[in-house]
Sequence to fold (605 residues):
Amino acid sequence: MNRDLRAYWTSVLFGNRTSYGVVFTVVLYALLIAIGFVYLYPLLFMFVTSLKTPDDLLNPMVQWIPTEFYPGNYEKALRVLDYPAKLLASITVAAVPSVIQTAVCSVIGYGLARYNFPGKNLMIGLVLATFIIPAQSTVIPQMLTFKDLGLLGNLSSLVLPALAGQGFNSAIFILIFYQTFLALPKVLEEAARLDGASDLKIFLTVGLPAAAPSYIVAIIFSVVWYWNETYLTVIFLEGGIQTLPMQLSKFVQAYENLYPPGTVNVLDRLNEAVKLAGTFLNILPLLVMYFVMQRWFVESVERTGITGE
Amino acid sequence: MTQTSSLKRGEMRHSTREALTGYGFVAIWIIGFAIFTFAPLVQTFIYSLNQVTIESTGVSTEYVDWANYSRALFTDPTFVELLIGYAIETSVSLPIILIFSMIIALFLNLDFKGKGLFRTIFFLPVVITSGPVIRELTEQGATSTAGLAQVAAVADFLAELPRSVRSPVEYLLTSFILILWFSGVQILIYLSSLQKVDKSLYEAAAIDGASAWESFWKITLPSLTPTTLVIAIYTVITLSHFSENKVLKYIYDQTYAVEGGIGYASAMSFVYFGVLVVLLVVVYLFLNFQSRRAGK
Fold:
């Protein structure tokens, strides 16, 4: 009896075949919550600080809970960022090249996966190389060429490379589609071919539907990476299109244009709360997209089985 | 089937036809590679051997042999220092990112309530990590581990350390959260790789009396080895391409600086490219060696 009781408590505390046991569960949650807090700390810090009044900022007693709800920082940041216009620009800059890049990369990945041709392995090697080569080693001649063609400050300077499979991180998407189409059974393709379908038609009717999860992954990551990219967008789009991250990079300058330092009262000086409000507004659209799509985001990555082998 | 299709099309052999169709699918990439990657790469290399000045009529170049390279490596103290800093920071961050993302992926692969919430949290940085955002957060001190480096005792301790040890430790203390933030995609890849491990292996091991601990070392870890290699290489490349990288910022500034110029910046970008490749080779060889040794 005593031994049974001890065995029972042991299994409750330390688990058995069907459950992890109390000790392990508690440790697991404690660890995940602690790591999760450290992980989210910059975001929490940003959000809380962005709601602080100038008084709260100076008051060392106010750490995590602002004394009042103060939307003033956001009002300023919205004006400084010129939010609606820049948001629209950002959405365009992220969406248009992403859609094109995804479509093109899927075609290239399909060609690599389903056909044998001389030089195929060399090409896969070169695709990998395009991922390794730093943008710095190619960007200046590209920029000068676009300048000659009058495409600087124009969306085409991002669309054209994307159209040719040389967009931002295109190599990753080509490899994702390569893997996806490699896993597709040949039987389907052969059946369609017996029915007299052309290669293009086989791609559109057999390949494309089977790769739906990969398309979702590619579009999402592509949008995120184009949205966050500032190095290339500053070089290619400066003077023509301003995206939100570009505007954030020169937040101080834009702020002082709107609120010249000598002329405004102390409370309207630029402080970290306004800056962080601007930063938060910058990532807000992506946060919204992420929380709306996060089920797809996580599940489709699992379904495409990107393990990169 | 092969026979009939090749007969219908006349003389063309099946394999030739297949190759041509394949080229048809990838043609756009070959053209794009030539125009947008290969030609600019060659052009940048030519620039790096020249003194380049931009005039109203166009670009004028003056051949200077390897002067830009020797200046970058032997005369310019900032560039070499930044390069060394970059190499140190990358080699400090890499193991942390690998271990952290593997542990988180192992946790998230378990069955427990609220798994979805934690997944959402740990993938979040993937979405929001951009240069300007990180810069703002770092400037406001939101990314350091709560000012640990400012604590007097820690500062004193750091001051005692030799410089070569101090800089990686300081880097760790000030940007620990940032390093973790670069683990999002890595967690995702580990997770999908974990879900591909054959469940029946664990059952067979359990029947043979293996504990969960033994199963982890004998089944889970070996099956993650190829993934680890891919993730390591991906991590090194992402860290090296991140727009807040100090070397990249220096190269960018020098492009437009009076005393620098396009030629000098091009030479530095090639040196940087070389260092990146060396780092990748070292990581590849190291992990390959480790996994082989573990396999024995």
Q: What stands out?
A: Chain B has two domains: 2-48, 73-129+182-295.
